[in-house]
UniProtKB/TrEMBL annotation:
Part of the binding-protein-dependent transport system for phosphate; probably responsible for the translocation of the substrate across the membrane. PANTHER family: PHOSPHATE TRANSPORT SYSTEM PERMEASE PROTEIN PST, PHOSPHATE TRANSPORT SYSTEM PERMEASE PROTEIN PSTC. The keyword rRNA-binding does not apply. The gene is pstC. Keywords: Cell membrane, Membrane, Phosphate transport, Transmembrane, Transmembrane helix, Transport. The chain crosses the membrane at residues 24-49, 69-102, 114-132, 169-192, 213-234, 284-306. InterPro entries: MetI-like, MetI-like_sf, Phosphate_PstC, Phosphate_Transport_Permease. It is found in: Cell membrane. This is Phosphate transport system permease protein.
């Protein structure tokens, strides 16, 4: 009987069509993956080839006035990492809190409007954020910078005066935090909603408060997803150009977050590439290669962290 059924299934046109559809879909998925890897490889190859003249240039050959390429890109690399790191420190707690409020605390008639507003923040162009940071947020933070300089000047990040215009690395970090907030919030919200209801109900049935239930059931389940959301936000912050370019005023890198004179790699490229040619263009492409490597390393670290916590072990 079983053999007859198998033979009829083999000759069933619907089964044959299903197998053909599976093969077609598998081929399309494989092709898409290969295309993405090929594009990434070509981008990396282009960056390496165009960067070689700047990376191998001797003293006096660079057009930026520096003795070597690394003395040119080093301060911008540090500025990029500081701005992105501070942005994540500001955005992550707020994003996780908002996502948790929408998914577990907010009444139903409020959760959807709040979610729509958060998603709307992601649709605002970066140049609008930059203009807002330069014309409104920067001057608004000047009194706070003055207070920090006068009362917390013994801390290195607040030492050495403050910017009278508010166009500082900290202002740029706040703008970046607002820009990555909807990305982290949206992803965390979707992950929190997917927490198994049986785990939540079991924790509540054992006498846990809602916050204890969140700690025992929701956070362990969403740990890997939260890390992925944060790393996605970090990628957005690392690559942001126009918002940072509008807020920051170019200058020498300093450890002071509230003074002028810091710059990031994306902003440097955005401001100078349209008019660059020759060695200057190679220098900017080499700076882009450095940013490419930083982003790649960050994503590899994120994947490693996620792989360590991919199995849910908090409540099962």
């Amino acid at each position: 009987m079983t053999t007859t059924t198998q033979q009829s299934a083999l000759h069933d046109p619907k089964s044959a069509g299903g197998r053909a559809g599976d093969k077609i879909f598998s081929g399309i998925a494989l092709t898409a993956g290969i295309v993405i890897l090929a594009i990434l490889a070509f981008v990396a190859l282009y960056l390496v080839v165009e960067s070689l003249p700047a990376l191998t240039a001797g003293e006096g050959e660079l057009t930026n006035g520096k003795t070597s390429f690394w003395s040119y890109v080093g301060p911008m690399m540090v500025g990029t990492l500081i701005a992105s790191g501070v942005a994540l420190l500001l955005a992550t707690p707020v994003a996780v809190g908002v996502a948790l409020f929408i998914s577990h605390y907010s009444p139903k008639h409020l959760s959807q409007p709040i979610g729509y507003v958060i998603d709307l923040l992601a649709a605002i162009p970066s140049v609008v954020y930059g203009a807002w940071g330069m014309t409104f947020l920067g001057p608004l933070l000047v009194p706070a910078y003055r207070w920090l300089s006068e009362n917390a000047g013994w801390i290195p990040i607040f030492a050495g005066g403050y910017s009278q215009t508010g166009r500082t690395l900290f202002t740029a970090s706040v703008v970046l935090a607002v820009m990555v907030l909807p990305i982290i919030t949206s992803m965390c919200r979707e992950i929190f909603v997917q927490t198994p209801k049986l785990h939540e109900e079991a924790a509540l049935a054992l006498g846990a408060t809602r916050w204890e239930m969140v700690k025992m059931a929701v956070f362990p389940f969403a740990r890997a997803g939260i890390v992925s959301a944060v790393m996605l936000g970090l990628g957005r912050a690392l690559g942001e150009t126009m918002a940072v370019a509008l807020v920051l005023s170019p200058g020498v890198l300093s450890a002071n977050l509230i003074s002028a004179g810091n710059q990031t790699i994306p902003a440097e490229i955005a401001l100078n590439f349209p008019e660059a040619f020759g060695m200057r263009q190679n220098e900017l492409i080499a700076a882009g290669l450095v940013l490419f490597v930083i982003t790649l390393v960050v994503n590899m670290i994120a994947r490693w962290i996620v792989s360590r916590h991919k199995e849910f072990s908090g409540a099962n």
